[in-house]
Amino acid sequence: MSLLNKRWQEAGYPQEAFNEECAAFIFTNHFDQPISYYGHKIEAIEQEPVFLVEGTLTRWREFNPRINAKYTYLQNGLTPQNSDEIRPIRQEKSSGKYVFTVCNAVRNYAKPIFKEMHAYFELTCPDGKVYNFGLQSTEEIEKGGISYGFATVRGDLSCPDSNEFMGSRVTIHKTPRTILEDKGLALLEQLKIERREGLPFNWGQNNCAHFVASHGKLVGINISINRSLLSIWLPNKFNIAGEHFLDSLPIIVKNILTVIIKILLIIPTIFLNMIAYKFLGAWRGFPQNEKRVALLCNPYDFFFKLPTLNLPYALLTWQLGERDTYIESARRIQEALV
């Protein structure tokens, strides 16, 4: 039995409909994940696979001539993909309001010592349309390896974000906030522009967590995503204790301590910035824009804040402190679909 045939069976698709080319198309593009997300099935008609294409059940041989086109899989099935277009990930019952939902996918398949996370957000409109957006690294960064570690390139503004479809492979924490109508409309228009023109991406500053927090700020939501270089290596309870301790001090004492810490960190910061610039690609610029230097802390910022990174881990810490944060389930999604 081939690997594709085995995956076909594991997905619960009818064995009599197995087709090598169809299976390769589905699994190579990870369409099996959204098929499961929407509760869709692949059926068999005269031993041929049949699935949804733009809302119509379509046989593989009827669809096959169009296989070279780019597709995404949404609620109405396979849909031609336009890189500049924004389409809702799903249609739910009318909510009557705009809701901005912070999402953070903890990837369960990552090694226990390092829980990999990815942040994105949803925008629910009054008519029940739910849009889903995330900023991810690109193939350019992935292939460049460590030499692109702090490069700033044109990121992949995904719509929808693929992590939403990953089922049991991730645990998705969601934190909803109702926002004003004018904020929701302005955000949607802003995202259409960004989808068309692109956004900068780098691992340290303009990453997925920054994408969520910056767009949350546009609609009036303040989200904590910053972590100093020192606090990254400390358990969170020490970070919280340290913040409470600093907050309890008189302002003059706090300012003196801050100056002392910055003096102590001058040499390490300069050293780390040199490494980031020379060996980790911080000098690489975002195409079609002026060059951006993605240092751990640039010389101007150093006098106003400690060297920091924007992290999905910090965003999750913020979420866990909010009472309305919940863990998403595939069943809830399917029950909400219209």
Q: Can you describe what's shown?
A:
- This protein has 338 residues and is of the alpha+beta class.
- It folds into three domains: 3-80, no CATH class; 90-223 and 321-336, no CATH class; 230-309, no CATH class.
- It has helices at 3-10, 20-28, 32-37, 60-63, 139-144, 181-197, 208-218, 229-232, 236-248, 251-279, 299-302, 312-320, 330-336, and strands at residues 43-45, 48-53, 56-59, 71-74, 77-80, 90-91, 98-107, 117-124, 129-136, 153-154, 156-158, 170-179, 200-201, 226-228, 308-310, 326-327.
- The strands form five sheets. Strands 6, 7, 8, 9, 11, 12 and 16 form a seven-stranded antiparallel beta sheet that branches. A three-stranded antiparallel beta sheet has the order 1-2-3.
- Strand 8 (117-124) and strand 9 (129-136) form a beta hairpin.
- It is globular, with a radius of gyration of 23 Å.
- The model is unreliable at 298-304 (pLDDT under 50).
Task: Briefly characterize the structure.
The protein folds into 3 domains: 3-80, no CATH class; 90-223 and 321-336, no CATH class; 230-309, no CATH class. The protein has helices at 3-10, 20-28, 32-37, 60-63, 139-144, 181-197, 208-218, 229-232, 236-248, 251-279, 299-302, 312-320, 330-336; strands at 43-45, 48-53, 56-59, 71-74, 77-80, 90-91, 98-107, 117-124, 129-136, 153-154, 156-158, 170-179, 200-201, 226-228, 308-310, 326-327.
Shape call: globular
Count up the helices. 13
Topology pattern, helix = H, strand = E: HHHEEEHEEEEEEHEEEHEHEHHHHEHEH
Terminal-residue CA separation: 38 Å
How many beta strands in the DSSP annotation?
A: 16
Low-confidence region ranges = 298-304
Rg (C-alpha, Å): 23 Å
Mean pLDDT: 82
Main sheet attributes: strand count, strand direction, barrel closure = 7 strands, antiparallel
Can you tell me the number of structural domains?
3
- Decide which structural class fits the backbone: alpha+beta
- Relative strand content: 15-25%
Query: Roughly how much helix do the residues carry, as a percent range?
Result: 25-40%
